[in-house]
Sequence to fold (272 residues):
Amino acid sequence: MKGILGRKVGMTQVFTKDGKLIPVTVVSVEPNVITQIKTVENDGYNAIQLATVEKKVKNASKASIGHAKKANTTPKRYLKEIRDYEGTYNLGDTISADIFTVGEYVDVTGTSKGKGTEGVIKRWNQSRGPMAHGSRYHRRPGSLGTMLPMHVLKGKKLPGHMGGETTTIQNLEIIEVNVAENYILVSGNIPGAKKSLVLIKSAIKKNGSSAEPKEVLTYEAETVVDEVVESNEPAEEKEVEAQEEVETSTEAEEQPAEEVAEATEENQGESN
Fold:
């Protein structure tokens, strides 16, 4: 089994080249550091401990600082164990988003959104009573059972705290893996609020199997560059051309003056 810790960013949608729209969840995955390796001889089971998200040294305890120094890293905010891991790792190694491939099935574990105290209709999907004024029974939980036990039986569906529980959604497909920008696109929705911690690990039911990779459309902004044409003519030729242009302009200016003088002489001869 393999896994990595990340943070849920939010949901969006992508299009494939076949024209299909896939709703996906964006998970920001920073490089995870292996801060501890557990073995059967020392701990009774095999596991690796992943750590992510930097933590200020002034806010960390001495025990956590010493634990991180063994892996030659800084204190981390979140720690999680992965049992029966695949491959061989050493203390201080990092795991990035490329641990998963496109089309692979995964299970995502997170803490669901807290809803506070809710009634039986929202918490257990029960039906309400008649809403007329005379019924006097609208959203109450109903009968609690027989009188013989003289107490509420365990497991009775009653109002109470809803949400805020560890939840796992299985068999989700990896749509895209971007190592450069450190994110993974997972099909569908995953538990947790935005910026909450989630654990992505190999699917238990579909372990080893993968779907056909989806070809996702990518959009790139076009950059317009103004072309600059540079002439390779020598500087001397440019000077000669400039002088020729000046001479032609002066000749064009002198020619009208000569024509005016000739016209005035002709007018004087006719008058005489």
In short: The chain is about 20% helix and 30% strand. The longest strand covers residues 3-15.
